[in-house]
Amino acid sequence: QVELQESGPGLVKPSETLSLTCTVSGGSISGHFYNWIRQSPGKGLEWIGYIYNGGHIHFNPSLKSRVAISSRTSDNEFSLTLTSVTAADTAVYYCARRGRTPTLAWYFDLWGRGTLVTVSS
Amino acid sequence: QSALTQPASVSGSPGQSITISCTGAGSDFGGYNSISWYQQHPDKAPKLVIYEVTNRPSGVSDRFSGSTSGNTASLTISGLQAEDEADYYCSASRTSVTLVEFGGGTRLTVL
Fold first, then answer.
1. Which residue in A94, A106, A112 is closest to B93 by CB distance?
2. Does residue B47 carry a pLDDT above 80?
3. C-alpha closest to that of A72 among A35, A30, A18, A26
4. Pairing of strands A115-119, A11-12
């Protein structure tokens, strides 16, 4: 059974860089679109971006200038970097897998438990 | 500002049916073949309950169903149970550019 687990610092200072890793266990990271999604406290969900097979990457235009996503296939993990953070970036960050489909549909069939990142001095 | 609009809250009594709507806006809103629905209990990760408008993942109760009409997608939960009390989010992707969006969420209260 495939599982996703986020890890990283729970506290980041304003203007610094947020870095998180998602470890995929029970299956290969290859062949799936892996995503980062966040949820601000008491708010809705925001899609951040995805990585596919290590080289195909795409971001939400609203965050594109500050976001990077990379992967390490050998370790079956992928990572998120968000620069110049502010209090508005305080959120629970989830990694999630796009479901396999022959269509253009986007849906997320597997989620990590999420990790809370607080931006504060 | 999401292009997907959901009611803030809905409620129903055990055994009843409820419907949560998700209305698209904007001229470039993608085709509804990409609508999915997620259930989120407090302090838990979202769980996929409907994908590609009408499909249920394995293990999801057949009390959950999805549909579309015009520019509105709907999630219907029949035979309401206490465990259905949660937040529900719709999601869709635009066809003009790869961008996945979520609705603002609907809080379902089982009375």
1. A106
2. yes
3. A30
4. parallel
| Closest Cβ–Cβ partner in B51, B99, B105 for A107 | B51
Q: Which of B95, B92, B98, B103 is nearest to B40 (CA)?
A: B103
Model confidence at B28, pLDDT cuts 50, 70, 90, reads very low
Per-residue HEC secondary structure of chain B comes to: CCCEECCCEEEECCCCCEEEEEEECCCCCCCHHHCEEEEECCCCCCEEEEECCCECCCCCCCCEEEEEECCEEEEEECCCCHHHCEEEEEEEECCCCCCEEECCCEEEEEC
C-alpha–C-alpha distance, residues A20 and B54, integer Å: 34
pLDDT tops 70 at residue B97: no
Per-residue tens of pLDDT for chain A, all 121 residues: 999 999 999 999 999 999 999 999 999 899 999 999 999 988 889 999 999 988 899 999 999 899 999 999 899 999 999 999 999 999 999 999 999 888 888 999 999 999 999 999 9
CB contact under 8 A, A104 and B36: no
CB < 8 Å from B in window 18-77 of A:
35, 44-47, 58, 60-61
Q: What's A29's DSSP letter?
A: S
